[in-house]
Design a protein that fits this description.
The complex is a heterodimer of chains A (488) and B (399). With 488 residues, chain A is an alpha+beta fold. Chain A has 15 helices and eleven strands. Chain B has two domains: 189 residues, no CATH class; 149 residues, 2-Layer Sandwich (GMP Synthetase, Chain A, domain 3), CATH 3.30.300. The chains are: A alpha+beta (488), B alpha/beta (399). Chains A and B meet through helix 10, helix 11 and helix 15 of A and helix 1, strand 2 and strand 3 of B.
Chain lengths: 488, 399
């Protein structure tokens, strides 16, 4: 870009713009002459704009524009005669280009060193739909869409509070994506807010297409398999997070909001818990924890008990187990590892397949392949049961991020258990626990408030207490208590 | 940032290295590559020890001649058990001998019962038990059973009702009609290392059918009658003595004893059911010196039709007196037997040591001799109780 600001010459400005937008055939340069014979140009990308608005409103008004002889009075006259234009005008090419690429139309006039921008953006967007990754039985079914403004509108309409602050920044050196940081002033801890802001400002990416691009930068520990940032497509969940004192980050073009800070227990809280009787929710939530434990440890415990410590089994159970395994030619380790691998392949395949075929793949995998494998004597029926149970328990975890962790750790524990038996299993479990205890999300310990023994804050951890007793505020550690290695 | 700091990672690595000396994948065995050891018997043959193992394997049944199996694409694996015997000069040699004969690894974690023959037990069982206590698998809960006659016969018991002897024995014990608790390896070792070192183990015998008919089968009879001093079998109690010994040391719920009836009752023998606490036995100082005192207070009911027991104090007193006498005689017989064998199976010494330490110091040097000479004083207080004997109230019929 040769010049930083606009010149008063229309020809020069046009030449500059054509140079910048060389090869961009979607940009139209529409000349016009005002009623007072001043030449001008309306420039826009015809894919991004509302062409009806341009032809029926903007152009007729530009043709009828009455400008005084002194060009210094033009800005005021223009804003009076063209009420659909925003008050501000632009002089820097950088700002002008961002507006143009956003779908707005640029108005350039001969003899004026400023450009006016008409808001004409009209991009076809997906309407607000039901959440696909977090479905619930009872409660609002309003998911975020890709466009940022409707997403922000949903949150504003759900949280009518002037303390709800929305800060917008541009991220991506090339993509120039708008990112909105939302928080409830007075509720969010100032240290948390400062930390989130600091991390957002450290992001240097060329391209930001989804909120997922930012997760690595917002996470404390990028090597940890545990998700330190929560994603949601549910608007009610985002609003609840704001009220709990968490920050919400929305990205233009992404239907997933990021919630910060995140603790381990957040992943076991489903939206249903708050829309149904607290007793039922309190009964179901421990089941989810149990399901997670099963999902992580069931295959490895099977290996431990059958290969290393069959003494743990009652005699009669051992006899039926032995009878079931008699024909299997491969070792228990490879049997369970193979079945887990097949399960994950089926899971992956059913995700990528069209929705009509997806479920049938699951049925083929579960029924036909399992039955065929048992009949062929490749695997024992109990392993099929164990793996099926692992799959079922995995899917009862509400968060997809944590589901992935469970699958990964089940492999990890199977490997260790096959190597060292119960010692290996305990060693692996201890390693996972140690790692979990060392994690933080924006300074909030990942296992808080359980690890800090703040009993009164356990009301929404293992159970869902009635609303009158519910205390939900994720608190950051005082900065002097944050382990120095984790400070950023 | 690394998820594990260098110090933590080094610690974990060191732990892993240390764990190599522990059981790991190098010592693991798959189910289908092993036989399951269920029961073992120890006999002495000349100067050699013979160890027989009852092993279980799940083999594929061929299903020949079975139309159902022929139609089926997959034959069902069936549990099969067989015996394998090893001989040697020591238990380790004998075990090594039979292990070398077995084509698969023998998994011993579910060894449930160890039969030791009478001959082997008389020579001392500690060398055998020592081998089992040091076993790779934890075998503390293995039952110890001393057999009348060869121990190996117990593993070949021909009884279709008992699938194999281990589970048959377990079911027999669980049924609990005789209230028998079989001594385990850890129980034995606990008593072996205690002061008195004498105890009574379970003995077993096979009752063979008198006539070989299709329906007759061999029966396993077990009772707590093998009297031990340290690790040697001294003698066997009689079955009645065994029953009274159980009554002494175990919970005697549902314990029934036949007793001689007083002359005015129509039956010769009545069976009484007891209810109450176990009797106490202790050595107490009296005017005649140390005396063995047995005290027992219990309620009893008669299991047969009791319409003849009229609600008359005379009848009831006579019945109670008869039970008292019978019990005193039986307990006296049992205790006399143990005194003759100089075997303090009731651990009287322990209680004397606790309650009268000065007296214990006087007798402890020669306790077995002292025990055998102690005068016996038995005090039984049996009370007849029968809920159906009513004198008033709803359901009472006047005769």
């Amino acid at each position: 870009m040769s010049a930083q600001t606009l010149s008063r010459s229309l020809v020069e400005n046009l030449a500059e713009l054509r140079t910048i937008l060389q090869g961009c055939d979607d940009f139209k340069y529409r000349p016009f002459t005002t009623a007072t014979d001043i030449e001008g140009y309306l420039i826009y990308s015809h894919f991004l704009v509302d062409s009806q608005f341009i032809s029926q409103t903007i152009l007729p008004n530009l043709f009828n524009l009455q400008l005084p002889s002194s060009s210094e009075l033009w800005p005021k006259t223009i804003s009076r005669q063209l009420p659909f234009l925003p008050e501000s005008s632009y002089t820097h090419w950088e700002d002008i280009l961002l507006q143009l690429l956003d779908g707005n139309s640029l108005i350039l006039l001969e003899g004026l060193g400023e450009a006016f921008v008409a808001e004409t953006a009209e991009i076809e967007a997906r309407p607000i739909a039901k959440p696909e990754t977090e479905p619930i039985i009872r409660g609002p079914s309003e998911a975020f869409a890709e466009k940022l403004s409707p997403n922000l509108a949903i949150i504003r309409s759900r949280l009518k509070n002037p303390q709800l602050k929305i800060n917008q920044i541009l991220l991506g050196q090339e993509s120039h994506t708008t990112v909105a940081l939302l928080y409830l002033n007075g509720v969010i801890q100032s240290e948390v807010l400062a930390e989130v802001r600091r991390r957002l400002n450290t992001i240097h990416l060329d391209n930001v297409q989804d909120s997922g691009f930012l997760i690595e930068f917002l996470s404390e520990d990028t090597l940890s398999p545990f998700p330190l940032v929560q994603s949601t497509e549910r608007s009610d969940k985002a609003v609840a997070a704001l009220i709990e004192g968490r920050a919400v980050i929305l990205v233009e073009g992404s239907p997933f909001a990021i919630l910060l800070p995140t603790i381990f227990w957040h992943y076991f809280q489903a939206s249903d818990d708050y829309f149904q009787n607290y007793l039922i929710a309190s009964f179901i939530r421990p089941l989810r924890y149990l399901a997670y434990l099963f999902a992580v440890s069931l295959p490895s415990l099977y290996v431990v008990v059958t290969v290393f410590h069959p003494q743990l089994l009652p005699l009669r159970f051992l006899l039926s187990l032995t009878a079931a395994r008699e024909r299997v030619p491969i070792s228990t380790f490879f049997e369970i590892l193979g079945m887990l691998f097949v399960l994950d392949i089926f899971h992956e395949a059913s995700l990528r397949l069209p929705q009509i075929i997806g479920p049938s793949i699951g049925i083929v995998g579960a029924l036909i392949m399992g039955e065929a494998a048992v009949t062929a004597g490749i695997v024992s029926p109990l392993v099929v049961i164990i793996v099926a149970l692992t799959a079922v328990t995995t899917f009862s975890i509400p968060s997809e991020d944590l589901r992935g962790t469970a699958r990964m750790f089940s492999y990890f524990l199977v490997l260790l258990s096959s190597f060292l038996g119960l010692y290996g299993f305990l060693l692996g479990a201890l390693t996972i626990l140690l790692h979990l205890s060392s994690l933080e999300s924006v300074g909030v310990p990942y296992l808080s408030p359980v690890s800090s023994f703040h009993w009164k804050e356990w009301t929404d951890v293992f159970i869902r207490a009635p609303w009158s007793n519910l205390r939900k505020k994720t608190k950051r550690l005082p900065s002097e208590q944050i382990p120095s290695g984790r400070k950023k | 940032m690394l998820p594990l700091r260098i110090q933590t990672a080094s610690f974990l690595l060191l732990t892993l290295l240390c764990l190599i000396i522990l059981p790991g994948c190098w010592s693991a065995h798959e189910f289908n590559n092993e036989f399951i050891l269920l029961a073992e018997s120890i006999d002495t043959v000349g100067d050699q020890i013979s160890v027989t193992s009852q092993l279980l394997s799940t083999e594929q049944s061929n299903g020949s001649g079975n139309s159902k199996s022929q139609n089926s694409t997959q034959a069902q694996p069936q549990a099969q058990f067989f015996l394998i015997t090893g001989k040697g000069k020591s238990i380790a040699e004998a075990v090594s001998d039979y292990r070398s004969k077995a084509p698969r690894y023998i998994y011993g974690g579910h060894l449930e019962v160890l039969f030791i023959s009478e001959d082997a037990a008389k020579a001392g069982i500690m060398p055998y038990l020592d081998f089992f206590t040091r076993h790779y698998w934890s075998l503390d809960s293995v039952w110890l059973v001393i057999t009348h006659g060869p121990a190996r016969d117990m593993l070949t018991l021909n009884n279709p009702m008992m699938k194999y002897v281990t589970i048959g024995l377990e079911e027999y014990v669980q049924k609990g009609e005789r209230g028998i608790e079989i001594t385990t390896l850890s129980d034995f070792l606990l008593n072996y290392h205690s002061d008195s070192g004498t105890q009574i183990l379970t003995s077993s015998a096979i009752v063979y059918p008198k006539r070989s008919k299709m329906n007759d089968m061999e029966q396993l009879k077990i009772s707590n009658t093998a009297l031990f001093c340290r690790d040697r079998l001294i003698s066997f109690l009689s079955p009645e003595e065994g029953a009274y010994y159980n009554y002494f040391v175990q919970d005697f719920r549902n314990t029934a004893f036949p007793i001689q009836t007083p002359p005015f009752f129509p039956q010769e023998k009545l069976t009484v059911n007891l209810n109450g606490k176990s009797p106490t036995i202790e050595a107490i100082p009296t005017e005649q010196g140390l005396t063995l005192s047995v005290k027992d207070t219990f309620d009893f009911e008669v299991t047969e039709d009791t319409s003849f027991v009229k609600a008359d104090e005379k009848y009831i007193s006579a019945l109670e007196e008869s039970v008292n006498e019978n019990f005193s005689d039986q307990l006296r017989e049992l205790i006399r037997h143990t005194q003759e064998e100089k075997s303090d199976v009731f651990n009287v010494a322990d209680r004397l040591h606790t309650m009268h330490s000065e007296l214990w110091n006087e007798v402890k040097a020669n306790w077995p001799e002292e025990y055998s000479k102690l005068p016996l004083q038995i005090e039984i207080n049996a009370r007849y109780r029968h809920s159906r004997t009513m004198t008033s109230g709803q359901g009472y019929k006047e005769e």
